[in-house]
Write a structure and sequence with these properties.
Bound molecules: uridine-5'-diphosphate
CATH topology of the largest domain: Rossmann fold
Distance between the termini: 24 Å
Shape: globular
GO molecular function, one term: UDP-glucosyltransferase activity
Pfam families: Glyco_transf_N (PF26168), UDPGT (PF00201)
CATH architecture of the largest domain: 3-Layer(aba) Sandwich
Radius of gyration: 22 Å
Family: Belongs to the UDP-glycosyltransferase family.
Keywords: Glycosyltransferase, Transferase
InterPro entries: Glyco_transf_N (IPR058980), UDP_glucos_trans (IPR002213), UDP_glycos_trans_CS (IPR035595)
Structural class: alpha/beta
CATH class of the largest domain: Alpha Beta
Strand order of the largest sheet: 3-2-1-4-5-8-9
CATH superfamily of the largest domain: Glycogen Phosphorylase B
Amino acid sequence: MASTNHHLHFLLVPLMSQSHLIPFTDMAKLLAHRGQTVTIIMTPLNAARFNAIIDYAINSNLKIQFITLNFPCQEAGLPEGCENLDSLPSPDLSVKFLKASNTLQKPVENLLRDLQITPTCIISDFCLTWTTDLALKLRIPRIVFHTVSCFTLLCSHNLETHKVYESITSDSQPFLVPEIPDRIEFTKAQLPAWARRSSNEQQDLFDKYKEAEQSAQGLLVNTCEEIEPSYVEGYQKVAMNNVWCIGPLSLCNKTASSKFERGNKPAIDEHRCLKWLDSMKPRSAIYVCFGSLSHLLPNQLIELGLGLEASNRPLIWTIRKESCSKEFEKWLIEQKLEERLNGRGLIIRGWAPQMLILSHPAIGGFLTHCGWNSTLEGISSGVPMITWPLSAEQFYNAKLIVQVLKTGVYITDEALVQCQKVGALVKKEDIRKGIEKSFDEGEDGVERRKRAQELGERARRALEEGGSYLNVTLFISNILCN
Ligand code: UDP
């Protein structure tokens, strides 16, 4: 990548969660490759998890550093060591975690002063509103970074401004998103808590985020014009701010080692993983992963295991360590599932090298919970997706994949409704059928796979020579002219 002549020092302030830290650290690489200096705020445990980036920076002569501050676990009433959303013992603690994340202004100010670091621009997570004050004090511009799609941003903006929720009485009543290019319906239950404004506290929080976004000098979004042109254009019109789409940021990872260790040390050896992938026919295998936070109950995992077995396809199944309960492990052993799969199934208990797996030619389908990072990684790899959204903004991403981009299928139509109810099961047979549909040899399936491949090629070009490459240049120039 070309480097610009002028020099900036970016201070990156991410929320301490894998789906935020990963694109933030990818963005650090992108900016550093353009000749800029990047300092990232970390906590000790997160810095240790992301240490591979520092090694990468040293080896590639890039100016990236971490500065670490202690996360106020005790003060926030969180167990010691809960420095990342994925280490909370219960999702109920996430409100406390978010609150604690918004008490870091003073410690960051002190840290910058003690270390004599003088950034020239802050890039802040959209939910860390205190960075507005910090930027004012330091008299430097502040940019908000969105880790969701423009489709999500535009849909939530339009639902909000058209006050659609006011006339909706039940969680299961479908309503249309106004003034978007496609016909998209949601129910309230499918929307994230922050978007459905379920309480006054949520409402206040959302208003604060909006305010902090509007006072920023601009917005960076991890997406690209090549993937969702009409939604990028639509959001640019309503955002009342500069919007620079600079993704897919995961594509900054070009070497096998940077694709392998991203966000955590994987629970599988690189050689073993590649050997298994290399032994499979092109586009034959399914990769299954539900991201860094989602938790499937043991009975759902059992149905999933049986559904995957019944699909008769080669598969890599990633199960979060936290989901590997005694009950589920006992079932796995008793049923001898791994033996029954007889070499065609690789089960990873813990962190998978997702980028390395998805970009391998053996992968022909991605069964995903539709977190935005996973969605983008699937799109960029040209892999058709089997969508199984569970919470947060995952329903937006599933609708984008299936109804707008037409590069994926729903695991089952019922699942879209069922999985909103705690404890509702998606059955083995539905899972098998969902996978079968994705690999369908008929005209629909062939067309879907073709579209997925073409979209992947466009997405990969975005960062090399397309819209995102240009937008990074425009963004840096804008800050330099500040
Ligand atoms: N990820 C990974 N290995 C895993 C689980 C997740 O590399 O075993 C990465 C994945 O590639 C993505 C991120 O973690 O970059 C998860 O973010 P996403 O937005 O998809 O979902 P979330 O974790 O927020 O549910």
